[in-house]
Each structure stands twice: as structure tokens, then as C-alpha cells.
Recover the amino acids of this structure.
């Protein structure tokens, strides 16, 4: 049984070695974007574009849509917490009812 495992490991090692050699010796396929291969066209395109810097904290402070969404989510969170709390309290109350009845009966 140990020999079968050893033979299997050797066969797998050879297969992996062959696949790695076949993969790395294969010629590189041409890319779909010829600009990426030369680099000159990419630099020319980059000169035409503009770079924009955004301060995320300022944007979040002054963006009204974000403020409205934040308020709506805050209200929704408070409402769900209240519902969860009241549900938990009613469940606890219902679970303790039989226990209280038994203690009163004794």
C-alpha cells in the first residue's frame, strides 16, 4: 500500500511538472488592447485626462443625499431595536408565566 502511494505521488509530481513547463513555455497571447502593449498611446491618453481628488469626509458631511439616507437608516435601526426589545420582553413574560403559576400553586 505504501508503494502505491509512492507511485501515485511520483505520477502526480511528473504531471504537475509537465503542466508547469507547458504553461510557461507557451507563447504569450496578444492582448486585446494594443495601447497596453506599447505604452506610448497610454501616456498620450493620460495627458488628455484630468485627475480629480475627493475628500471623502467632506463629501459625506455636505452631501444631502447621504445625510437623508443616514437619517432614514438611523430611524429604521431605532425602530427595529424597539421592536426587538418589546418582542424579547413579551417572550420572557410568556416564558415566566408557567413558572410563576407553579410557584403560586405550591
Amino acid at each position: 500500500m505504501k508503494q502505491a502511494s509512492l507511485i501515485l505521488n511520483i505520477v502526480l509530481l511528473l504531471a504537475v511538472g509537465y503542466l508547469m513547463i507547458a504553461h510557461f513555455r507557451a507563447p504569450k497571447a496578444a492582448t486585446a488592447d494594443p495601447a497596453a502593449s506599447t505604452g506610448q498611446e497610454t501616456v498620450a491618453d493620460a495627458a488628455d485626462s484630468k485627475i480629480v481628488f475627493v475628500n471623502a469626509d467632506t463629501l459625506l458631511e455636505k452631501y444631502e443625499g447621504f445625510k437623508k439616507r443616514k437619517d432614514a437608516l438611523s430611524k429604521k435601526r431605532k425602530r427595529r431595536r424597539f421592536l426587538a426589545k418589546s418582542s424579547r420582553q413579551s417572550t420572557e413574560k410568556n416564558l415566566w408565566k408557567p413558572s410563576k403559576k407553579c410557584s403560586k400553586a405550591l
Remarks:
- The longest helix spans residues 64-105.
- DSSP finds five helices and no strands in the chain.
- The CA atoms of residues 44 and 50 lie 12 Å apart.
